[in-house]
Amino acid sequence: MDYNEQDRREERRKRRRRNQIAAYATVIVLIAIFAVGIVTGVNYLTQTAKEQDAQRQDKVNAMLGEEETIEEPDSTETVVELTPEQKLDEIVNAGIEVMPLEDKVAGLFIVTPEAITGVGTAIQAGDGTREALSTYAVGGIVYFSKNIQSEEQLKEMIDNTQLYTKYPLFIAVDEEGGSVSRVADAGLGTKVDTAQAIGATGDADNAYQAGSTIGSYLNELGFNLDFAPVADINSVEGSALGSRAYGSDAAGVIPFVTAMMQGVEDQNVTACLKHFPGIGSSTQDTHDGMATTDRTLEEFRANEFTVFQAGIDAGANMIMVGHLSAPALTGDNTPCSMSSAVVTDILRNEMGFKGVIISDALNMSAITQYYDSDEAAIMALRAGCDMLLMPEDFEKAYNGVLQAVQDGTISEERIDDSLRRIYRIKYADKIEQ
User: Fold this and answer.
1) 350: DSSP letter
2) Domain 84-430 has CATH 3.20.20.300
3) Cβ 280 vs Cβ 244: under 8 Å
4) 140: which of 10, 28, 242, 391 lies 20 to 30 Å off by Cα?
């Protein structure tokens, strides 16, 4: 082999080596570039992650640092405190809602025990009373002298009567003092002077003491309603009321009427003012037949009405309307107890009386000579009376009113209105004052 051939070989070997070195260098450079890229990417991602973490933490810190007041849910419901009046209304309405119509109608009557039991004279309350009250859930029982024999007998009869009834009862009596003292006349209470004698003293405190005395012994025996005081004035000479009225001057009579009423009421016995619009303006007695007056509306307003208005303003719970015929008020001879012009227009609306209006006894001749028992009862209710006292024939009166409600002559809502007024008295002690 010659020199030139050897040189060419050496030259080719050197080129191969240079090519290998260049290839190795290129690979190394590429690896280096790739490595740098990886490191840069990792650093970028790491930085980004750090920044995101920082942002999240900033948000958390911001939330924690905010001065917001987060209210916890109120665990107690807001309770609206009812007034005593509202509580009483709820009790009354709840009771009336569950009463059948028959009981509602019966609840408008105050009758003698004999009227529902059929006995001649009631001196005890046994199975007959229990059965009668189950059949006729009357609103009240009124007792007279013939029903009273002794303190023990009277208390037992009243207690049993209350025990046998489905609903609270008025246990009533006429106890004015003087000549109208059913209980005191039987020796079971302290006799007080007549209204006329008390009025003559000029000291209304004597009327309060008389009312308190009467209310005290009535309450002790079990009575809760007294048909007293008399709020009439003796406005004519020879008035049928006589000594039962405190006087003839309205202004002078007012303090005695309101004082006696308060005395009775302070012993937890309901007082009943009587006899609206004022039968002292007649010399005739409604017990015996029609009693009329020629007194004008203006005269009534200036005199008799002022006494009853004073009683209303003093908190009267019940007023009795008499059977006086007062054409100046009614327009005809209709008894005032059956006249809407008197009961509703004057007493309820004009004078603003919101309590119970009860008729005088419907067995008086002023009624029975002209009206059947059912007719009288319906007329009194339609006039605006809430309660009916002692119809001549209770069953006929009761059935008549029941039929009148069933046929729409009297609405059931009208009956409910009366019952609300009645039960506001009966349930008054069920609320906290």
Assistant:
1) I
2) yes
3) no
4) 242
